[in-house]
Amino acid sequence: MMKTVLVTGGAGYVGSHCCKAFAQAGWNVVVLDNLSRGWRDAVRWGPLIECDIRDEPRLRAALQAHQPDLVAHFAARAYVGESVADPALYYANNTAGTLALLEAMRATGGRHLLFSSTCASYGIPRTLPLDEAHPQTPINPYGWSKMIIERMLEDYGRAYGLASVSLRYFNAAGCDPDGEIGERHEPETHAIPLLIEAARVPDRPFTVFGNDFPTPDGSAIRDYVHVNDLASAHVHAGEMIVDRGGTHVFNLGTGVGTSVLELIGAVKRAAGTDPVVQFGPRREGDPPVLVASYAKAERELGWRPQRSQIDFIIETALRWRDGRVGR
């Protein structure tokens, strides 16, 4: 029988790509999203339930109606700067919202949760590459809001038998190679779409925050993983947790770092023009290098990144951007 996955935040960037991957793997997909930061036209692989995750009675009704084998939980606010300016929003939406979801699952017999977590829960790296045993010491409310959820999942597993997988993303990037869905944020804060815009629109310069890091070229280094690779990992993790149960945590990255200046060069190659660039000071709390170890995901999920070469990431992002503007 086909399994059903209920995807909270399935109208958003990573959530919508995961919906497509689940559908292609033979799952029935149901999306639950309040569309505050998602897009109705990104819901293409199953019905949409318009609902806020803090609305526990409506969550219960949705879970009761669809009886999902798995809940894949992406619904969250995800801007670091916004979390510093308005932490209440992040604890109310991300943390308390997840508590409402967990209680709705407990009331309706839900047993399996796949959680979209973040490398922001690690804080400043002490060792590299970062593995899952690295201490979690977040430096912003966004990271704390996600880390608290991970602890909640551990506790719900021990007390109530909830099975869960937390997937700690590094830098999600790129777009669906088929062009059906892509990356849209308002406001946009991710480096690759901002750089592409700076290459296409001269009066929208890209700001490099810091060129004096202790790295080979002075700019910060990050681990970019293609969103389709993330989606593949979610399918692997979803199938594992339904079959095996338990409480699990995995990093999702590539083990390869790309500096901001290298990223600028890659966008120039793909776009055929120089992005307009300006330099600013470092942002508080920005670590010089963030690179993942994905050895545990490879060992236990059989997952490794397949599409995360930086040129391919940028090619898919550029194609999505130009295709949307051209329509």
UniProtKB/TrEMBL annotation:
GO molecular function, one term: UDP-glucose 4-epimerase activity
EC number(s) per entry: 5.1.3.2
Lineage: superkingdom: Bacteria
Coiled coil regions in record: none
Reactions this protein catalyses: UDP-alpha-D-glucose = UDP-alpha-D-galactose
Pfam families named in the record: Epimerase
Enzyme kind, highest EC tier: isomerase
Subunit-level organization: Homodimer.
Name assigned to this protein: UDP-glucose 4-epimerase
Species lineage: Bacteria, Pseudomonadati, Pseudomonadota, Alphaproteobacteria, Hyphomicrobiales
Gene behind the chain: galE
